Amino acid sequence: MTSYHARPIEPAALKELRATDDAGRPMAPFADDEGGAPLRCCLRRSEPGERIALVSYAPLRRWAAETGADPGAYDEQGPVFIHAEECGGPSLTGHPFPGAHRTVRRYSAQGHILGGRLVEPPLTFDEAFTAAFADSEVVLVHVRAVEYGCFLYEVRRSDPEW
């Protein structure tokens, strides 16, 4: 089975988000007393006491800026948790944030939504990614939380296998 690379928010984007988020608001860090927040900088859950921030992030807009795509009305921004200070990034095997239903939303090279799929047992993430990328029009997928619809991470067709 092919493995697909879960991409965190890029370091350059994190630096920008820690100054001003994609909605134009300054970062407001806080101590996470409970822990468990899904951090998009390192693709793990926060530990109690870590300093984190909830910022507005526009993943498709940032991808489109890299690729020259024009997602039009499909552009959206939403809340994501990040470390308040620079962190070491991900150090994981497998797919982050397991144990809950997720959706895999597919996008074209133009940044338009081509559909999506609910990932729940017995379907695995690798099976969902394989099915998504079997469509030659799909160049990018977003993994999102079902309960809130929040962006968790992206997988790109062009990324090398793990």
Task: Write a short abstract of this structure.
The protein is an alpha+beta fold. 17% of the residues lie in helices and 27% in strands.
Question: Describe it for me?
Answer:
With 162 residues, the protein is α+β, with helices and mostly antiparallel strands. It is built from three helices and nine strands. The protein has helices at residues 11-19, 59-67, 125-133, and strands at residues 30-31, 38-39, 44-45, 51-57, 78-83, 102-107, 113-119, 140-145, 151-156. The strands form three sheets. The protein has a four-stranded antiparallel β-sheet with strand order 7-6-8-9, covered by helices on one side. A hairpin with a 5-residue loop joins β8 and β9.
Name the structural class: alpha+beta
Q: What gross morphology would you assign? A: globular
Beta-strand fraction estimate? 25-35%
What share of the residues lie within helices?
A: 10-25%
What is the mean pLDDT? 92
Distance between the termini: 11 Å
Taken in chain order, the helices and strands follow as HEEEEHEEEHEE
Strand order of the main beta sheet, please? Answer: 7-6-8-9
Largest sheet: 4 strands, antiparallel
Total beta strand runs = 9
Rg value: 15 Å
Salient structural properties:
162 residues; four-stranded antiparallel sheet; single chain; alpha+beta; three-stranded antiparallel sheet
Outline the fold blueprint.
Elements: H1 11-19, E1 30-31, E2 38-39, E3 44-45, E4 51-57, H2 59-67, E5 78-83, E6 102-107, E7 113-119, H3 125-133, E8 140-145, E9 151-156
Antiparallel strand pairs: 1-4, 2-3, 4-5, 6-7, 6-8, 8-9
